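User: My instructor asked us to take a sequence, write out its structure as tokens, and then describe one feature of it. I'm not sure where to start. Here is the sequence I was given:
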Amino acid sequence: MSSELRIFVPIAIRATINSLIPRLETASGLSVTQLIDLNPAIPERISAGEAYDIGLTNSSYAKALISAGHADGASHHSFGRVPLAVGRKAGTENRISKDLKGIKALFHEAESIAYTGAGTSGRTYVEVMEQLGLTNAIVPKSQAMGGGEPVASVAAGETELAVAPLTTVLATPGIVPAAIFPEELGANIDMSIFLSTTPQTGAATALAFLTADELNDELAAAGILRFELN
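Assistant: Let's start with the prediction itself. The structure tokens for your sequence are:
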């Protein structure tokens, strides 16, 4: 029996999971290997047969994996809801916009905006711009990038704003939140957690640790809010 616990982790919450690994390994008695990728790529890798014990990804993908027999439905739990946010270089301004008027003004005033083209956050950003009627005005000055690249671009001073999960903005040195998308826009990124159909012994204990209420305050400080599955 292997002593390795393989966990799929979205790029958006890898910093948070990294901070939990030592306690997770103690709780499960296993060494943890993270399989890090963009949310849309995780179900593709699982569906292709890549071995794993625990999966973390968007709730819609988790439900599809369960329906297809690639994940254990009985183990499916909510993990956390991550607000979509906008990051800017630290020291430029301290105000955080949390209303539609402020967010619209922020995007109109910006000269350049970066987002993750193949990620859930990028798709959500484009959808929200369409919802707000800003597609023609804002999307042309927005640049699609790879995972983790938008915040890195802002930190390097190459781009003015980065649209990314709040977790990513908070975890990136030199970047501060410029805006957090309000609940009414439906821009939150919901994450689920689940076991594979053949999980390693100790995986259920690890899942119980990651879903325990004792972590709620710590996760909230990192930009992850607990929620109930529908």
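For the description part of your assignment, you could build on this observation: The chain has a mean pLDDT of 95. Try explaining in your own words what that tells you about the chain.
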